[in-house]
User: Fold these one by one.
Assistant:
Number 1:
Amino acid sequence: MTHEREATRAWALHPDIKSERDRRGAEFALAEAVSLAAALPDLDVVGAESVRVSRPHPGMLFGSGKIDELKAKFQDAEVDLVLVDGPVTPVQQRNLEKEWKVKLLDRTGLILEIFSDRARTREGVLQVEMAALSYQRTRLVRAWTHLERQRGGLGFVGGPGETQIEADRRAIDEQLVRLRRQLDKVVKTRELHRAARAKVPFPIVALVGYTNAGKSTLFNRLTGADVMAKDMLFATLDPTMRRVQLPDGGPEVILSDTVGFISDLPTELVASFRATLEEVLAANLILHVRDISHPETENQARDVAEIMDSLGVSEDVPVLELWNKIDNFGDEVKAAHIGRAAREDDVFAISAVTGEGLPDLMERITRALASERHLSQFHLDFSEGKKRAWLFAEEVVESEEQDETGFNLTVRWTDRQEKRFREM
């Protein structure tokens, strides 16, 4: 007889800190926090509210009156877990857990939990474990500071508190070293796969966008793949890649679906998931998928641009902006968005669900990748038969003339093909 695990009763709080200049709209931030929580199985969000905070209390985050008021609500709702949509220091977490007698997770902790639950590939799992340990390590050091006061003297001689911190820190560091070694092996394997792909240099088209923008739905429609596509934040964590033949004689491309971006992504994850997003760095063309029906779509687009910038995506890589989910609008508003997109350069109003707008997009992708090819002229000696055979196998030779020393060739190829040829 199997017993279903009882769902954890959770309450989401968004601290609306008035002293923060660039704070997001409280209503939308809270809605996103609830969506984040919904991405975790076995979690039942029984309440959610935004709490105005003039200035965060260093020890408790909120004022004493608000803490008492929330405590009563949590008791009435039999809450097991409080999710705070924002950073919470280890001291604040410890004090609030003690006061409310519940477990508390801040935004970083929650996102780590989701990533841990969603990661599928070996690399994804290792990245999450390393990010979680890095996060725990920073909290561990500060969370144990109350023990350091047990020491006497000037603190040069370690007491029980310091011994405990050092032992825990060393255990985490040793585990991080082990994980990093395993990750290096996995990354090398991926590099071998990438090198194998480079021999057949299909252009890479990468889908990027804010989480839940509809990337996976679009990926499935374009490739016929069955990638998990749910109305859920972080539905995709590991890059999924498929070969796609573009219509009307267009080139074959590799389409890559990536993890959704999100505002205030924990620094531990930005660093750890750089490798997960490496396909974006290698892309010949980027498709930025936006949920144009979302009230915060402009802010989300800015967040995506900032993360791409921090990843070091080259400005030379062309970006097409896709205004997805136009099927969420009535006819009049939909027509207005289609008209607006048509007046913009490289913007397409589409619906990944209905397929509307996709033929024009595919034609533009074909043109973007065709314009990537350039003409080169050079001479090959008779002794360079291997190079000549490779050029013909790649179908890049436009014309060839033979003279007494070898071959004069005109080729049309991509930068990637030229680079491979020069390295032969």
Number 2:
Amino acid sequence: MPKVHVNEIDIFYEVKGSGEPLLLIAGFMCDRSYWSLLLPHLVSHYQVIRFDNRGIGQSSIPNSPYSTQQMATDTSALLDILGIKQAHIIGHSMGGQIAQELALLYPEKIKSLVLLASLAKGNERFNQLVESWGDVATKIDLKLYEKLILPWIFTDNFYAIPQMVDQLVEWVINYPSAPTANGIYHQSRAIIHHDTTDRMKNIHCPTLVMVGKQDILTPVTFSQKLAQNIPLAELQVIEDGGHGFLIESTEVVTQAILNFLAKF
């Protein structure tokens, strides 16, 4: 799988399927593999592009400040190199923040937008939490770090599945491109400095805002604000989903995405 050099870094990406382009933007600490459960359903309908943001996976991990606008320009440059003039864009969490900036900076490149468990701006509680996640990454090992974060990502039902969390933690720490302290820190700062509160009204593409009802990290109120202020947005709340509903509620989320994209 190839890399491209953009904005003084290397971006690792892959393209699968055929049809209209569909770009997937992952969230905090997540590389392209986070979309793996959705991928088989999406590639049967679309040409799917997924990639590693700066600071994660097999893309460059510069030890310098990141911003969601900067990562949006990375994403735009990748589309340019691939010769893609317009695409459907899906972003999860931080990926949804990047997707907002992409839609604001390069509206001509966006056919539709799907914002999953995302936000325009964090409140004080959210920002304090994410800031601490960036700080503690240099203090403890990755296994303990994952155990601290995962309760914010998954629901009680997920934790009730025997050995599920332990298996997920082991997968992360043994992953060949596991998150690094530098990448975690700089991505965390990009998240808490993101603010489209006064600009999201300028996103004029059809937009689906989706959130899990049990999401305690980016709660329903965050998505409600997006849906209320983006002119062509609609809101869908997944009853049994948490922040990690791409893993917990894969089929429900995928079907909702496909139903939305089929309109365009």
